[in-house]
Design goal:
The chain is an alpha/beta fold. The protein has six helices and ten strands. The strands form three sheets. Strands 1, 2, 3, 4, 5 and 6 form a six-stranded parallel sheet that branches. The protein starts with a strand and ends in a 15-residue tail after the last strand.
Length: 232
């Protein structure tokens, strides 16, 4: 089971990037997390750019999402809102509408902040955006408050209750992504093809795919080239 992680903060030593390290350590043996660290390289969303050629960083993100069975987003909160760089990346990854690599993808949203609320508003907005895109966001919530005191010297969560909540949220996410989970109940009736590097919605040629690990998943794949938002 392959998960991809996104940290909404660009800061070196980010608490939310550290939280993703905790996620990786809490996964069972049959699951792994790969953190995608390219948010800073993604240009502002612009349909003019999209019409010419998908930017390289966007194509890289979309390939990472398409190759994953689930998504974990760890977000901070800036002025009671999700970070702009995270929203921008999700806007790009939402293309084309209804047939992006996020459509139907099981996703979990967690977060850490210096406040007493653990980025609760930022997480709420991130869940709303992912749901609008078509991701299947699990109910589990993990809000890590006072993040500067939340981790021990080994990078683990100090609060045992928070750690248990994180484990339960990950269990919920993995259950949704495994064969027979809610993802497979989706109607797989669309696919994406690439036209000169642009993202184009195509006809009803999507199918259930088999991951390299041999587990059947409900990812939408193209009948011809590998599924991706675009190429550079």
């Amino acid at each position: 089971m392959r998960l991809v992680g996104l940290a909404g903060s660009l800061r070196h030593g980010s608490y939310n990037r550290q939280l993703l390290d905790v996620v990786a350590s809490e996964l069972p043996a049959d699951a792994e997390l790969t953190v995608w660290n390219g948010l800073a390289r993604i240009p502002g969303f612009n349909e003019d750019l999209e019409a010419i050629r998908t930017p390289a960083a966007v194509a890289e993100l979309c390939r990472a999402l398409a190759d994953a069975d689930g998504l974990v987003v760890a977000t901070p909160e800036y002025n009671h809102a999700m970070p702009g760089v995270l929203k921008n990346a999700l806007d790009w990854a939402s293309r084309p509408p209804g047939a992006s690599p996020l459509a139907g993808m099981p996703a979990a949203v967690i977060g850490a902040s210096l406040s007493a609320y653990g980025a609760a508003w930022g997480q709420q907005q991130t869940r709303a955006v992912l749901t609008a895109i078509g991701a299947r966001v699990v109910d589990g919530e993990v809000a890590v408050p006072r993040a500067n005191h939340a981790f021990d010297d080994q990078g683990r969560l100090v609060d045992a209750q928070l750690r248990q909540r994180l484990v339960e949220t990950l269990d919920e996410l993995l259950a949704a992504a495994r064969p027979g989970g809610p993802w497979l109940s989706l109607s797989l009736d669309r696919s994406v093809v690439l036209d000169g590097g642009r993202m184009v919605q195509a006809g009803p040629s999507a199918r259930v795919s088999t991951s390299p690990r041999g587990a059947t998943t409900g990812k939408l794949v193209d009948a011809a080239p590998a599924f991706a938002c675009g190429e550079s």
